[in-house]
Amino acid sequence: MATREIQPLKPHLNDPLFHPFWEGAQAQKLMLRQCNNCKAYQWPPRPMCANCSGCSFSWVEGDGEGRVYTYVVAHRAFHPSFEDRVPYILVVVDVAPGVRILGNLLGTPPEKVKIGMPVSVEFVKQLGGSTLVCWRPKSE
Question: What kind and span of H or E run contains 38?
Fold first, then answer.
């Protein structure tokens, strides 16, 4: 029987709309895309502002804090590279008006996760050089 090497999942770093986000993550910064016309945040990034149809944007650094909007506890790995991590928690975090970012929640057991729970960003370097945006419970 042949054995194959499992490669870790990597974010798509080639998308020009997301490039500043991933570049920020490498620098330990949570970067958010903001319309220069109406100042609305755009997530996910898209070519035109959903609020005012503007086409000029800037990337601004977020404060790295948010609240859990929703979550799921994965008891089954969706990819072989996650088999040793189950159960793991995926959260959607409110970080700014109109911006909800998906990521892993670290450092807490599944039974402690609550909707509205305050979290802080944590950047996790992966093998291969990419950096993931994850979250950790914030002590109030």
Answer: none
Give all strands (DSSP E) within 1-140, no chain letters. Answer: 31-35, 41-42, 57-61, 65-74, 88-96, 99-105, 118-125, 131-137
Q: Is residue 9 part of a domain?
A: no
CA distances from 113 to 30, 103, 106, 108 (A): 22, 14, 11, 7
Q: Which of 1, 2, 26 is nearest to 13 (CA)?
A: 26
Q: pLDDT tens-digit profile of 25-38?
A: 999 999 999 999 99
Q: What are phi and psi of 50, to 5 degrees?
A: -70, -20
Q: Is the pTM higher than 0.90?
A: no
Name the residue range of residue 43's domain: 19-137
Backbone angles phi, psi at 13, to 5 degrees: -85, -10
Are the beta carbons of 35 and 54 closer than 8 angstroms? yes
Express each pLDDT in 47-100 by its tens digit.
999 999 999 999 999 999 999 999 999 999 887 877 888 999 999 999 998 899
Overall domain count for the chain: 1
DSSP state of 110: G
pLDDT at 80: 81
